[in-house]
Design goal:
single chain, alpha/beta, six-stranded parallel β-sheet, 23 helices, 20 strands, binds thiamine diphosphate, binds magnesium ion
Length: about 600
């Protein structure tokens, strides 16, 4: 109890460090500068409890912390100096914010008594010490304390905000004098300050939802990131079996059900699965669990492609009331933690179903047939022997070399869609991707964080060459930490996903190939890059060599890189297109424009 705890004299950064230790935070990751000298100095005194990790770019510090959170469900501290180091993290914070993951970022700030004077790296022309306002759209809340004795309060507020309700990143912009000065303080007791417990839905809404589900003939469960964040995978699967309902997943929801389960009907949206879209679009009742119905997962709301709500009736579980009814009209809103809501729904449904009964229905047989048809369609690219190989084949071979519970990490580009579409995810928190913000450069640093969170698991970072080239300097971090991530670079000499979109929507391509002046393709020597950073690194061109190369890389027990030459042929380079995506097209391309306008006319949000 705080009243009985003696006050201690601590500096601002000591308060921060002691608070983090109290919360069990094992790593502080970042790049020091004069704006955070006090912090790195204070961390030096507590290396027994919290370790400082170096990265080579502040963006990576946040992606690393984000990757750690996505796997462990616990936050790290990312830190930077004042100014450019701080602004370097914006993409990382945006990625975390959009996907509702928790990161605590500390940035250095101008001394309170010099604010506005133009301290080195201060932004001050519109407002003193103005750096944090750059972050306003990408943090749940931010603080810029003026006094050391504010810090205990600020820290428990920040911790609560970051982790309660819908999680998200928070920013602590800490003036250099507040870092350095000391005060008599009492550190907050987590037990007395945290919003623990799971928010439950209203009982009468649960009853209404249960009635709808009981009467449903074609129920479908849509699992989003909220299902994984709330550790509700068990409930999702139990409810699916109880109802005989297929489970389809969004990018963030992949892993909410073991994808080898008969009721796992795979992913929804564009570059997803045919079976997932067909089942979701023909559901009579859709139960969504922590998903926000993005355009990408809902095929830009074109009726009948991924969803048709109505006539489908929607039961929507979300911890954030802001998401309720946003994109589709909702029949029963359940504003609640996903795990609590599903448990309540299961209780309200009462006994019945269960066991293998769900296998007896015509609906079940239809689900299996649709899944089989989709698997057959995927074989075309996944079993292809062509060289340079398809990404689909490369992914299949990479997965053959890994354990069932291996963690796979992707950032934007064709690999992100291919992995979403074809990697068989067996457990929650093993498919990690920069989903909603879809950031390039996420893969490698997030994979390092993932591995730190799960040192017993294999971690495979599957990056396009473009994605890799944005943060490949973190091979240095992996090498110094000796973190055994296996980086797989899918080299197609370009930003091929964007090139494919250009071809589809504009009928010609621009600025997406990596070319030399003579017009031939350009690729750096990725294996040499890996070796240059001190990693075990190999180059692979033949599909048959991928699995052995990845197995060798994983067996080294250290960080490694496998570069794979993949197809540049737009016809087979990427995932199958399974949905619809609304892209505005100018009158200069009448054919593509007319096709888009026809599709847009069927969008349900209009
Ligand atoms: C930081 C960032 N910049 C730009 C984009 C837009 N974008 C999405 S995918 C992509 C290309 C990805 O290229 P690569 O990683 O090589 O994968 P590929 O599609 O070629 O397989 C780009 C430029 C993005 N998502 N993130
Ligand atoms: Mg590429």
């Amino acid at each position: 109890m705080s009243g009985t705890v003696a006050a201690r004299r601590l500096s601002g950064v000591q308060i921060l460090v002691e608070y983090l230790i109290r919360q069990g935070v094992p790593y502080a990751v970042g790049i020091p500068g004069h704006g955070s000298w006090s912090l790195t100095d204070a961390l030096l005194d507590r290396t027994d409890a919290i370790r400082t990790l170096q990265v080579m770019h502040e963006q990576s510090a946040v992606h690393l912390a984000d990757g750690y959170y996505r796997v462990a469900g616990r936050p790290l501290l990312a830190f930077t100096s004042i100014g450019p180091g701080a602004t370097n993290t914006v993409i990382g914070m945006a990625t975390a914010y959009v996907d509702s993951t928790a990161v605590l970022l500390m940035t250095g700030s101008a001394h309170t008594y010099m604010r506005g004077h133009g301290v080195l790296q201060e932004l001050e022309r519109r407002h003193v010490a103005d750096n944090p306002r750059i972050f306003e759209p990408v943090v749940k809340e931010w603080w810029q304390p003026s006094r050391v004795d504010e810090l205990p309060f600020v820290l428990h507020r920040a911790w609560n905000q970051m982790l309660s309700g819908r999680p998200g990143p928070v920013l602590l912009d800490l003036p250099m004098d507040v870092q350095a000065e000391s005060a008599e303080v009492v550190l907050p007791e987590p037990d007395e300050r945290e919003a623990r417990g799971r928010a439950r839905p209203a009982a009468d809404d649960v009853e209404r939802a249960a009635r709808l589900l009981r009467a449903a003939r074609r129920p479908v469960i849509v699992a989003g990131g909220g299902a994984i964040g709330a550790a509700a995978s068990g409930e999702v699967t139990t409810l699916a079996e109880r109802l005989g309902a297929p489970v389809v997943t969004t990018w963030m929801g992949k892993g909410a059900i073991d994808e080898t389960h008969e009721l796992a009907a795979q992913t929804i949206g564009d570059t997803a699965s045919t079976c997932g879209n067909e089942l979701a679009a023909s559901a009579d009742v859709v139960l969504s669990v922590g998903c926000r119905f993005t355009d990408w997962s809902a095929s830009s709301y074109r009726k009948g492609v991924t969803f048709a709500i109505p006539p489908s009736r929607l039961i929507q579980i979300d911890i954030d009331p802001r998401e309720i009814g946003k994109n589709y009209p909702v029949e029963v809103p359940l504003v609640a933690d996903a795990k609590a809501a599903l448990a309540d729904l299961l209780a309200a449904l009462g006994p019945g179903g269960g066991g293998d009964e769900y296998r007896e229905t015509a609906y079940y047989r239809e689900i299996q047939e649709r899944k089989a048809a989709w698997r057959e369609q995927m074989e075309v690219k996944s079993a292809s022997d062509r060289v340079p190989m398809t990404q689909a084949r490369a992914i299949r071979e990479v997965q053959r070399a890994t354990d069932p519970e291996a963690i796979v990490v992707t950032g934007a580009g064709l690999p992100q869609g291919i992995v979403k579409q074809r990697w068989v995810t067996r457990a929650p928190r093993t498919h990690i991707t920069s989903g909603g913000f879809s950031s390039m450069g996420f893969t490698l640093p997030a994979a390092i964080g993932a591995r730190l969170a799960a040192p017993e698991r294999q971690v495979v970072a599957i990056a396009g060459d473009g994605d890799f080239l944005q943060t490949m300097q973190e091979l240095a971090a992996a090498a110094m930490l000796d973190t055994p991530v296996c980086v797989v670079v899918l080299d197609n000499s370009g930003w091929m996903s964007i090139k494919g979109g250009q071809q589809t929507f504009f009928g010609r391509t621009a600025a997406t190939d990596f070319l030399k002046r003579d017009g031939s393709s350009y690729s750096p020597d990725y294996a040499a890059i890996g070796q240059g950073f001190g990693l075990h690194a190999e180059q692979v061109n033949d599909p048959a060599d991928v699995c052995p190369a990845v197995a060798r890389a994983l067996a080294t027990g250290g960080p490694s890189l496998v570069a794979i030459k993949v197809s540049r042929d737009l016809a087979d380079a990427g995932p199958d297109k399974t949905g619809w995506w609304d892209v505005p097209i100018s009158e200069q391309h009448p054919e593509q424009r007319d096709a888009q306008l026809a599709g847009r006319a069927e969008e349900q949000h209009l």
